[in-house]
Amino acid sequence: MTTAPHDESPPRHALTVLGAGVMGVGITVLALGHGLPVHLVDVDRELLDRAGDRIDGELRLAELMGALPPGISPGELVTGTSLKAAAGATAVIEAVTENAATKAAVLSEVSALVRPGTPLITNTSSIPVDELAGALERPEELVGTHFMNPPYLIGTAEVVRGPRTGEPAMAAVTSLLAALRRRAVVVRDAPGFVTSRILHPMINDAARVVEEGTATAEAVDALMQGCLGHPTGPLRTADLIGIDNLVDSLRVLHERTGDDGCRPSELLVRLVREGRLGRKSGRGFYDYT
């Protein structure tokens, strides 16, 4: 099922985004660039302060790349460390670390703070939505929306409807994505949904090819780009996702599906251990310093 990506007169939204990591920052840039006010929340004040500079830089980049609508002033950004900021939001997007217990705890606390009827959106790449919905006071308000990185450059979002997700929550999320000029493709709930269930095991296999000495990372990506039409190559994509995030997602998939192809390769695990997390750390499969 696909919904229209545009809305001539979208309703006003006031977002709270939880988590000032890579995805929280990217989602915040997307919203601000479309004129929506955002309250960005993270328990780490230092991380929040750094996020402000990153948001400014990515807003400029998005504008230069023509990824933002012309003639719209950026929305107002407010940052803070308290979840109480979510109380006045029209929608809350949770983008904390890809750990089911952490996400469930944050969503449970937020569910008790927001007005009934406020959609809660979990930005997860692999954790089933219904697994998290059990932590909420009103599980029908939870929807999964998997934004790709960077959200302000990718015009489609995977929307995951859990078994208990209600029609009002789906309508609210569809309206929000229309205001963000994003095409929403709705799928059913499952570990990894569609994008991660296909992409992450493929990246894992690409890492195994490098680990086994069959080819370099550069050769793998060149072949996947030149022969199979992958836009960036799987290992450059891994660096963009964040190799730590990728390993977390693969572990979730392996635990919930039993598919041994989702067990993180030793090379991916070693890169995380060495702090080579991809673009965000300056080094991953490639060097960005």
UniProtKB/TrEMBL annotation:
Superkingdom of this entry's organism? Bacteria
Does the record carry Cell inner membrane as a key word? no
Which InterPro entries does the protein's record reference?
3-OHacyl-CoA_DH, 3-OHacyl-CoA_DH_NAD-bd, 3HC_DH_C, 6-PGluconate_DH-like_C_sf, 6PGD_dom2, NAD(P)-bd_dom_sf
Per UniProt, the keywords (alphabetical) are: NAD, Oxidoreductase
GO MF term set:
NAD+ binding; oxidoreductase activity, acting on the CH-OH group of donors, NAD or NADP as acceptor
The annotated pathway is: Lipid metabolism; butanoate metabolism
The record's annotation in Gene3D superfamilies points to: N-(1-d-carboxylethyl)-l-norvaline Dehydrogenase, domain 2, NAD(P)-binding Rossmann-like Domain
- Has UniProt tagged this entry with the keyword Cytoplasm? no
Query: Which positions does the site annotation Important for catalytic activity cover?
Result: 146
Q: Which residues form the 3-hydroxyacyl-CoA dehydrogenase C-terminal domain?
A: 192-288
Chain positions recorded as NAD(+) binding sites: 19-24, 42, 98, 103, 125, 149, 280
Cross-referenced Pfam families, in alphabetical order? 3HCDH, 3HCDH_N
In Gene Ontology terms, what is a biological process of this protein?
A: fatty acid metabolic process
Domain named 3-hydroxyacyl-CoA dehydrogenase NAD binding: residues: 15-189
Q: Which PANTHER family match?
A: 3-HYDROXYACYL-COA DEHYDROGENASE FAMILY PROTEIN (PTHR48075), 3-HYDROXYBUTYRYL-COA DEHYDROGENASE (PTHR48075:SF5)
Family, as annotated: Belongs to the 3-hydroxyacyl-CoA dehydrogenase family.
Q: What is this protein identified as?
A: 3-hydroxyacyl-CoA dehydrogenase
Source organism per UniProt: Streptomyces uncialis
